[in-house]
């Protein structure tokens, strides 16, 4: 076996039994996993927030359409679950 390869193989063997190297590698791996988890959590929260925003926007659009069709504030509140102030604010904008 080539001497350089033999030296490299011996160094690699020494690294695999060095507790400090293994500990450092494990910490680096855990940090990487933690970061991946944080990114995945933030991503799912962003999606959840976007969905909620879209649902609210749709409720307001439907309420505007109901107002345009002459529906009462009480009816819109019952159907869409919006508070009276929100519905009245929409009426003022139309």
Describe the structure.
The protein has one domain. It is an all-alpha fold. The protein is built from four helices and no strands. Helix content is 88%, strand content 0%.
Mean pLDDT: 90
State the distance separating the first and last CA atoms.
86 Å
- Report the uncertain regions: none
Work out the helix count. 4
Given the helix and strand composition, which structural class is it?
mainly alpha
Strand content: under 5%
Major sheet attributes: none
Order of helices and strands: HHHH
C-alpha geometry:
rod-shaped
Our Rg estimate from Cα atoms comes to 31 Å
The helix fraction, in percent, is over 70%
- Total domain count: 1
Give a quick precis of the structure.
The chain is an all-alpha fold and 94 residues long. It has four helices and no strands.
Q: Could you outline the blueprint of secondary structure elements for this entry?
A:
Elements: H1 3-17, H2 19-68, H3 73-80, H4 84-93
Question: What brief labels describe this structure?
Answer:
single chain, mainly alpha, 4 helices
């Amino acid at each position: 076996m080539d001497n350089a390869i033999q030296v490299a193989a011996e160094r690699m063997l020494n690294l695999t039994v060095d507790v400090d190297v293994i500990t450092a590698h494990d910490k680096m791996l855990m940090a990487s996993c933690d970061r991946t988890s944080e990114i995945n959590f933030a991503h799912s929260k962003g999606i959840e927030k976007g969905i909620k925003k879209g649902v609210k926007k749709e409720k307001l659009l439907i309420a505007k359409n109901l107002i345009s069709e002459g529906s009462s504030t009480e009816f819109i509140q019952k159907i869409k679950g919006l508070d009276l102030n929100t519905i009245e604010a929409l009426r003022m904008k139309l």
